[in-house]
Fold this sequence. Notes:
CATH superfamily: Histidine kinase-like ATPase, C-terminal domain
Largest sheet: 5 strands, antiparallel
Strand order of the largest sheet: 1-2-3-5-4
Number of strands: 5
Amino acid sequence: MNSASSGAKTLKITSNAGVVEARQLVRALTLECRLSLVEQTKLVTAASELARNTLIHGGGGTMTAALVDERGRRGVRLAFQDTGPGIPDVDLALTDGWTSGAGMGLGLSGSKRLVDDFTLETVPGQGTTVTITMWKR
């Protein structure tokens, strides 16, 4: 996580309980950052989708969460990392409606639309890292 961050915390996402814990941590950070209710809801929703992707498609992994201060802005940054199979076609994976499983195909593309900053790094056979940030307005 680039920029100044305070109290970064990393959670393991290896079960549904890890997904729930990730949502709870994100909610707490959004309150601490004083994000609006709409911003809180968007970030928690995106985090829930990405945590579930980390568990289901990545075989489990981690979420690192922190408050960040960057260029005079304050926000919440989350990084979801797994060592799963990676994503062979990122453009396809970011297409609304495309799914590699039984879902609705809105996880990655929907999460990208919900947050201010979204980066996806993946290497087939080595894993994926998705980093998202929501900035306080």
